[in-house]
Every structure is written in structure tokens, then in C-alpha cells.
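As the next step, I wrote out a protein sequence along with its fold in C-alpha cell form, included below for the reader:
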Amino acid sequence: MELRQLKYFVAVAEELHFGRAAKRVHIAQPPLSQQIKALEEELGARLFERSSRKVELTAEGRYLLDEAREILERISDASETVGRMVRGEAGRMHVGFMEIAMDSHLPEIMRHFRSEYPDVGVRVSQLGASVQLERLRSGELDVGFCSVFRHGLQGLEDRLLFEKEHFLAMPEDHLLTRKDKVSLEDVAGERLIMFPRFGQPDLYDSILEAFTLKGLYPVIGQEVAGISGVTALIAAGMGVSFVPENTRIQRKGIVTRPIDGDFPAMDIYMVWKKGEPAAALRLFLEEVAASYQLGPVFD
């Protein structure tokens, strides 16, 4: 059974006249009749009752008409969807992000993209930098927004979106709030809340190295992922922590102070796998780059 045979059959079934059906599908009547006959022979069933006065569908023909219409509609829809995928108007995209990356106007960019391309399914996952880079290479993620501090980026493309200096976050009644800036010597005597090392091992080690270079040994009281978890522990009096500047802290009673001297910064990159991206991903990467005024992503 060929697709054109189904189209010819539907034309005859809807017109109930071979001459009109032939004009509708732009072929001569004899070839049309031959195609219908070939279809009946292949199915082993008569689809039409023919007489000199009229053409009628048989029970088998009525059943096939419903099925053929559905098949042709699905093929038309699939063809249209493929075309839209080629143009980037449809498809799927898996986005990874660190919490701090979303403390920017990235959510607004994603909202705008989804409104422009509602048929692009966007799935988001909150993941640490190391996991994101691993899944980008494996193809489990399409694009990631994370800190790539000293990470190897073999096989990946990247664009720096923004950098943030670290500040010390503490309860508003803490003695260190009396200072305009805090030193690492000040922090070394406090219980420090850190993020888990496995998510950002190079940044984690660099922060501790900043202390050891001064002959200091910080006391790590807790490890917790995410700004919301960090601020909850600070509010509970469990210690102090480093947070990127201008972080939107939802909890009241927490204040920040800049760090005096050299200290690792938080860099946030947009990262994706090398090669030709799918059309929808390409549009998304270009929209993010334009929003951050990074220039064109692709030549």
C-alpha cells in the first residue's frame, strides 16, 4: 500500500465520482481507477460498489476512509512538525543550572523564549557544575549555566555571562557587622558553612587555599547546597558563609560584608557541547548571548 493510493482512495470516497476525484488529485481518470483497483486487490476487499449511475462505499470502504483520513492527517502533522523543528520552532531542550545562575535575569530570558516558541519543550534540572559538565559531554544536558572555575572544558563550548565577588553573609547581630570589610583572619575564627566539595571541587579548594596561604585553618561547621539552605543555617545561628555579591537573600536578619583582599570570585558560564546544535538550542543560545550582549555565538 502506497501513500498516494490512500490519497486517491480518500478523494474518490469523498467525491463518490471518479471523474471529479481525478481532477481533484490532478491525474487522468483511467490511472486513478487502476490505482483503486490495485488497492482493492492488495487488501482483498471491494471498497466501492460501482454502477453506471453512482459510486458507493462498501462497509470495508467506510472503515478504511476513517483510518485513511487519520493516517494522512498524522503524516501531515508529522511533516509540519519536522519542518518546525528544522526552523527551531519545535523540539526538546534539557537545561542545567546552579541556583546562583538563576539569581540573574536568566529566568526572564527563559520565560520569553518559551512564549516565543511554545512547542519547544524545556526541562530544567538544578545540578552542580561538575555534574553539568559531565552530562553535557554525555548528551544528557543540552546547555548548562554554572561556574566553571578551573574546570576543564574539553569538548565543550562556553561563554562567560557574569562574575560575582564573594561576600561574607552573617546574622545581623554578629560582631563582624561592625566592620565595613572582613578579613580572612576574621572569618577563620567562625564556624563556616560551605557548599559540598563534589559540586565545585576547584572553587572549594581555592577558597580553603586562600586561608592556608595566610597560615589560617577555617573551621567548617556545615556543608549545604544552594543559597536557600545556606541562609537557613545562617538564620539558625549555625555559622557564616560566603555568598556571591548581590545575591537575593529571602530571609530577614542576614547581612553581608565584602571580603578584604584577594579571594576567588564566582563565575557563571553558559556551556554546551561542541558541534552543530539542534535548531531550537541554537536559537536559545543566541537569545541568551544577545541578552547579555556577548555578540554572536555562531559565525
Notes: The domain at 93-162+267-291 is CATH 3.40.190.10 (D-Maltodextrin-Binding Protein; domain 2).
